[in-house]
Amino acid sequence: MSKYSNVSIKHLQTVEERKDSLKVRIPVFVDEQKYTLESELDIYDDVSQHFVAYCDKERQDGTVEKHVPVGTIRLTPKPDHLAKLSRFAVLSDARGLHIGQQLVKAFIQYCKENDFDKIVLHSRYEGRGFYAKMGFVIEEGDDAIFDEDGAPTIRMWMRSL
């Protein structure tokens, strides 16, 4: 198993840079979770902000690969100062290192600094505990479990940023 160090979060600025987010999304969503490539690559990519977590990766032979994309998160702007958090993923061998928490914190900070006052996300039902620890809540009256791409899903909110 690889070792990771030196985590950094980058807000991607170009289409070329955005390819790094796909180096995480495709292995996680298509290869691991078995979503189709067509459902993963959607119309919102071009109008969204993308963030990637990079690490240095130490291989078993001791060599180090610098600046390897290991996590990603996407912000899609919605009306009324609402940000939608989506396409959040961390490579399987980089999980447990709090990279996901760092990505969500960077996402929230970006929202605060850029005129968003609330965040919504669709969590797979079994993943809702992670988001709750990050400050998201399931709101009464908006608490129905629904199907999204074949997975039980729940909407969660963070308001008053």
UniProtKB/TrEMBL annotation:
GO biological process, one term: UDP-N-acetylglucosamine biosynthetic process
Gene Ontology MF, one: N-acetyltransferase activity
Domain N-acetyltransferase, chain residue ranges per copy: 7-161
Name by which UniProt lists this protein: N-acetyltransferase domain-containing protein
Lineage, highest ranks first: Eukaryota, Fungi, Fungi incertae sedis, Mucoromycota, Mucoromycotina
